[in-house]
Design brief:
Blueprint (H helix, E strand, L loop, with lengths): L3 H21 L8 E2 L1 H8 L3 H13 L4 E3 L3 E3 L5 H25 L2 H20 L2 H18 L3 H14 L19 H10 L3 H14 L1 H27 L1
Antiparallel strand pairs: 1-3, 2-3
């Protein structure tokens, strides 16, 4: 009996970690409803810890409540994306800058391995694995800054951005032939050059802006299409 609360807490944590991973990997599309019982069955646990994990993600604005019983991935508009992008530029740029002051050779090798894993997953066409490797690269980079409050804020932004990252595989990146910005970040860490590391992070965020905006505009257009057709039919 005494183990029950600990076991429940552990299951809650497992459900939360699994949902975070799936959001960051772009498994769920903007506007997609999440079914409690389906998620619980997939994880092999009861609905209660999944429900509590969903509630936590709602409080963190990674998911939203629709009515009394439905939960869905938020549909982000351009204004919200602009705000999230601006916050990422400031916070992740600052984290990279601070990380350059603390990074050791071993830290750089670990980040190099994560970047190589990301590149390998890209070549293999495994979108979800590529996104998770990229997220781990940035999470490790933020950890090197030794700013836990900032890191938590950045992770919250990644949860909101995850469902949009599928756009990077359906819409062209800006300047696709240039060397990946991670290399600039790694050079900055090796040289303890905070400005170079920060610019690498900022470049990566900037180069993903165009495809994500194209995706958002495309989705907004699809959402408006039925209303347009109804108006046209009414006129006819």
């Amino acid at each position: 009996m005494e183990d029950a609360p600990l076991n429940r807490e552990s299951l809650n944590g497992q459900a939360y970690a699994r949902l975070c991973r799936d959001l960051k990997a772009g498994r769920f599309a903007p506007g997609e409803k999440l079914k409690l019982r389906d998620l619980a069955a997939e994880m092999g646990i009861s609905p209660t810890p999944v429900r509590e994990a969903l509630a936590r993600l709602i409080s963190e604005q990674a998911l939203e409540q629709v009515g009394h019983h439905s939960v869905r991935v938020p549909v982000m508009d351009e204004a919200r994306f602009a705000e999230v992008r601006e916050l990422r530029l400031v916070l992740e740029g600052r984290a990279a800058e601070r990380a350059a002051a603390h990074a050791t050779a071993a830290d750089v090798r670990r980040l190099e391995a994560l970047h190589e894993e990301m590149a390998a997953q890209h070549d293999a066409g495994d979108i979800a694995a590529e996104l998770l490797a990229a997220e781990r690269f940035h999470r490790e980079l933020c950890a090197l800054a030794r700013m836990p409050v900032l890191q938590r804020m950045v992770e919250g932004l990644w949860l909101q951005c995850g469902p949009l990252m599928r756009a990077l595989h359906t819409h062209a990146l800006a300047q696709p032939r240039r060397q990946h910005p991670h290399h600039a970040v790694l050079r900055g860490l090796r040289k303890n050059d905070g400005e170079l590391a920060r610019k690498g992070v900022e470049e990566e965020i900037e180069r993903t802006t165009a495809p994500i905006l194209a995706y958002l505009r495309e989705q907004a257009g699809e959402g408006a299409a039925p209303a347009v057709r109804r108006r046209a039919g009414a006129t006819a």
